[in-house]
């Protein structure tokens, strides 16, 4: 129930038609009596820098969820950037600090990490392999580093992307051991596909699953189907798996905390969401 | 239920805390399955010209409800202004035309006029007296002229305000007979208090009710109480009366039409509103 006191969380991106966040957050806010609302705002690239600034000058602006095509641009528009956002070169959450500065963070990878932790796997000291060093892969790698993994394998078809990501990671986490150039999963505790492979029916698998340790925790970012061919193959080898939408819901509590709002579990959010 | 396809009607003003429109429109949109939402946006004066422009560049912007302190400023920010808004010097509704121009109109007075008409009183050819030539009085006078009244009496403690309003009215409606300088209601078919008198318990009445014809239709803009002392006195003389909130609800169908949305009656909107 929107009223004059309702705090706005702008969902800024373009196009807006496929936005899911309003149907996840708003039913939760309603159930909990939290006087806030997520509002899709279809902002084009040329207007975005000015709009972001003016949005946060609204007296009832509470925060912004930023999505395509503004995640990269936003890193240059905020006053304070978290290490995770700086490493990944992208920002998907913005809030106004008490001192008037805009602070940006990135929670895509945090969703992956929280999902791993909640499934009982230790992140501190673990060895993790991230396949794909694009937007979501960079986000996951940065969040894994923040969570304290000891070693990160980074692989991308474009080798320089993985190498540059590795350099940015080590700049913030000097103790982290980074290796690039191989997608061989043997010896890793956590393995994640952060490429689009699996979105189309005839896509190849992102790595040689015959080399997956059965002890590995295997995650996926593709949401086109719940169990992708990659996850099916990993499960057949005995691996614990995490589906793409887990990452989506696991990150929502992180945003709620960032925005200073009462939080809950990913399962609860999934249950209250009205995505149909 | 807000989703990625939802059209936004920004409710632009400052402060927002007392806004009522979201609790009137949104329950109606929800009941009717109209994929639109009224969102309060607390915009300060210095930010307003830029924000209004950028708001209408959002791909899901549908329209704006404009309130204090932006009603006057808005007349200079739109490309096309209705005669009603031009006469009153205020604009409280903005939409984007198909050709990309911003069009502004004013429906405060339309609410009053629709209330009169729905209570069975003829406006065409009528003689109407408007006490108070401020924002709401100017709006009512402009809408009465549009509705075809033959003669308008205008009175304001500040005589020049009534005289200037009269000149603007005659510029758009040359056949209208305008008289200023008297608050004597004798001889009028429609009489409206458009001053704040009645908001405080010890306010004087806006005119000498002993001179009110019992045939007069008497309206009020004050909403502090349903039956103000002025309306009570008019009713005691046998006049038909219209309360302040009637004007509020009667104008909503006019906005819905302006925004190209399915409309309904004022009573229906009043019944579905969740103002508590």
UniProtKB/TrEMBL annotation, chains A, B:
Keywords: Amino-acid biosynthesis, Aromatic amino acid biosynthesis, Oxidoreductase. The keyword Electron transport does not apply. Coiled coil: none annotated. Residues 13-94 form the Shikimate dehydrogenase substrate binding N-terminal domain. InterPro entries: Aminoacid_DH-like_N_sf (IPR046346), NAD(P)-bd_dom_sf (IPR036291), Shikimate_DH-bd_N (IPR013708), Shikimate_DH_fam (IPR022893), ThiF_NAD_FAD-bd (IPR000594). One of its GO terms (biological process) is aromatic amino acid family biosynthetic process. Residues 122-168 form the THIF-type NAD/FAD binding fold domain. One of its GO terms (molecular function) is NADP binding. One of its GO terms (cellular component) is cytosol. Signal peptide: none annotated. Pathway: Metabolic intermediate biosynthesis; chorismate biosynthesis; chorismate from D-erythrose 4-phosphate and phosphoenolpyruvate: step 4/7. This is Shikimate dehydrogenase. It comes from Bosea thiooxidans.
């Amino acid at each position: 129930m929107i009223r004059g006191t309702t705090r706005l969380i702008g969902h800024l991106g373009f196009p807006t038609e496929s936005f899911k966040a309003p149907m996840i957050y708003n039913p939760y806010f309603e159930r909990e009596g939290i006087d806030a609302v997520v509002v899709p705002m279809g902002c084009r690239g040329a207007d975005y820098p000015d709009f972001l600034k003016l949005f946060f000058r609204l007296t009832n602006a509470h925060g912004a969820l930023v999505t395509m095509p503004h995640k990269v641009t936003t890193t240059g528009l905020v006053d304070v950037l978290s290490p995770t956002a700086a490493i990944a070169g992208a920002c998907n959450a913005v809030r106004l600090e008490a001192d008037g500065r805009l602070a940006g963070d990135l929670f895509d990878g945090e969703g992956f990490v929280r999902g791993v932790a909640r499934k009982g796997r230790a992140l501190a000291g673990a060895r993790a392999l991230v396949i794909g060093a694009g937007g979501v892969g960079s986000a996951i790698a940065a969040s894994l580093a923040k969570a304290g993994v000891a070693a990160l394998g980074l692989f991308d078809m474009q080798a320089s992307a993985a190498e540059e990501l590795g350099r940015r990671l080590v700049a913030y986490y000097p103790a982290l051991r980074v290796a690039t150039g191989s997608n061989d999963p043997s010896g890793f505790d956590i393995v994640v596909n952060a490429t689009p492979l699996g979105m189309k029916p005839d896509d190849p698998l992102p790595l040689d699953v015959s080399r997956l340790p059965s002890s590995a925790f295997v995650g996926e970012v593709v949401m086109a189907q719940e169990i992708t061919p990659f996850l099916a193959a990993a499960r057949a080898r005995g691996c614990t798996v995490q589906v793409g939408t887990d990452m989506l819901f696991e990150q929502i509590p992180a945003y709620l905390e960032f925005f200073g709002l009462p939080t809950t579990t990913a399962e609860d959010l999934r249950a209250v969401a009205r995505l149909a």
